[in-house]
Amino acid sequence: MIDFGENIPEKKHIDMTPMIDIVFQLLIFFLLTSIYAKPVLPVNLPEASSAVVSEEPEITVSINSSKQIYLNNRPISDNQFRIEIQSMLENRKDKSIHLMADKTVDFGRVIEIMDKAKQAGVEDIAIVTEKRDPE
After folding, report:
1. pLDDT level of residue 95 (50, 70, 90 thresholds)
2. What are the CA-CA distances from residue 32 to residues 5, 24, 39, 77, 105 (Å)?
3. pLDDT score of 103
4. For residue 84, is it within any domain?
5. Whole-structure pTM over 0.85, yes or no?
6. 38, part of any domain
7. What are the backbone angles phi and psi of residue 97, rounded to the nearest 5°?
8. Predicted pLDDT at 112
């Protein structure tokens, strides 16, 4: 009898090169885009169901939970706040700001900052909140 041997198929494997290429491209993409991400202050915003998503404003005033004021993500003292706002509004047509206050900050502090901004020449103050899911 003639022995032809067993028909053993070769082991098949998946070529990993394209997948590795894609993973490296995604890694590079996320690394490069994270460089241009705008730093965000840790402000716990209150929620409102009528909140509207809008473009990023040019002038942002933030008040964190320790009641520190930030102007465009730069810490600023209470004394310098009015002077800085006035200088920023000098050559602008749009004299509006966006105010972000932590929900633990007392309302009196928020009103105090709004008053100083109005005295500096701000015409419109938009209060930034997080969008609340409808119940």
Report:
1. confident
2. 57, 12, 15, 34, 36
3. 85
4. yes
5. no
6. no
7. -135, 160
8. 92
The partner residues of 76 in beta bridges, in order of sequence, read 69
SS (HEC) of 29-86: HHHHHHHCCCCCCCCCCCEECCCCCCCCCCCEEEECCCCCEEECCEEECHHHHHHHHH
Q: What is the CATH number of the domain that holds 112?
A: 3.30.420.270
Q: Which domain holds residue 101?
A: 47-131
Number of domains in the chain: 1
Other beta carbons less than 10 A from residue 89's beta carbon: 19
> Distance between CA atoms of 121 and 90, rounded to whole angstroms?
9
Extract the tokens encoding 31.
């690394």
Asked whether residue 17 is domain-assigned, the answer is: no
Burial class (CB in 10 A: 0-12, 13-18, 19+), 122: buried
pLDDT value of residue 23? 95
The verdict on residue 110 lying in a domain is yes
